[in-house]
Design goal:
Blueprint: H1 11-14, H2 22-25, E1 38-42, H3 48-56, E2 61-66, H4 72-81, E3 87-91, E4 104-110, H5 119-129, E5 130-147, H6 151-163, H7 173-179, E6 187-196, H8 199-215, H9 217-224, H10 230-245, E7 250-261
Parallel strand pairs: 1-2, 1-4, 2-3, 4-5
Antiparallel strand pairs: 5-7, 6-7
Length: 262
């Protein structure tokens, strides 16, 4: 199955991931966790959410999988530095997970399906490895809004949309889940949000985006495929820096969330 993740795991990309934890990125799932549960975190990246989930299940165990090995050493080091021992990290493809049927109480994926080739197949695999009565939990960004808007920021947003290869969009989570075999009556759909508006928050997100424009796999691929020029990218990066330094700068994300019981 071909991969469709156009951002590599460069430092500029991982910088926007390490802020994420279970509280700010998986709050919709937390009320359903129990201390003894075994959890699979698919597309774990640098492991910040994975490790936090492990803290929530102290008598259980968490496995984080990523389709390439690039971020896994960092995730292991982070777990070790924070003294979290009930977690491990492996290489695995969401389209063909390397686990037997009925292996986990919970399977979690955060901002993964928007980057992959076949979301329905991903749901099928997550459903396969979760236990009967277990939960598959998925969160994906639906939309974002910024103030002030600019040509450079809009150009970056449009480029990201052009580079994503997923068929459909994240408002279809429930449709993908149904096609994968989940019953509609066994789904719980909701929304969540992020907001970045303080100087520190703008520097965190906008600064990371500025670096991502300059150095991520998406940017390099876009230039190679003739979608943008290096000059275009420099203008996009400058637009992010302008946004960071604007005291009125504000950025909000709306996420779609779904819990599916097997």
């Amino acid at each position: 199955m071909p991969q469709a993740y156009t951002n590599n795991h460069s430092p500029s990309v991982l910088q926007t991931y390490t802020w994420r934890d279970a509280n700010n990125s998986a709050a919709y799932l937390l009320p359903h966790l129990r201390p003894h549960m075994n959890i699979l975190d698919v597309g774990c990246g640098p492991g910040s959410i994975t490790i936090d989930l492990a803290r929530k299940v102290p008598q259980g165990h968490v496995v984080g999988v990523e389709y390439v090995s690039d971020p896994i050493d960092g995730a292991r080091s982070l777990a070790s530095s924070e003294g979290v021992t009930n977690v491990k990290f492996e290489v695995g493809d969401i389209h063909d997970l390397p686990f037997p049927e009925n292996s986990f109480d919970v399977v979690h994926a955060h901002q993964v399906l928007q980057h992959i080739a076949d979301p329905v197949q991903a749901f099928k695999e997550m459903r396969r490895v979760v236990k009967q009565g277990g939960i598959v939990a998925v969160q994906e960004t639906i939309d974002s809004t910024r103030y002030p808007e600019s040509e450079g920021l809009k150009a970056w947003s449009d480029l990201q949309d052009d580079m994503r290869q997923t068929k459909g969009n994240s408002t279809q989570l429930h449709v993908w889940a149904r096609k994968a075999g989940f019953l509609v009556e066994n789904m719980k759909k909701s929304t969540g949000s992020w907001c970045f508006s303080t100087p520190d928050e703008r520097e965190y997100w906008g600064g990371a985006m500025e670096e991502r424009v300059r150095s991520s796999g998406l940017a390099a691929t876009a230039v190679r495929e003739g979608l943008v020029s290096e000059k275009d990218l420099q203008q996009m990066a400058a637009a992010w820096r302008t946004w960071v330094e604007d005291e009125d700068g504000w950025l909000g994300f709306l996420h779609g969330q779904i819990l599916c019981w097997k």
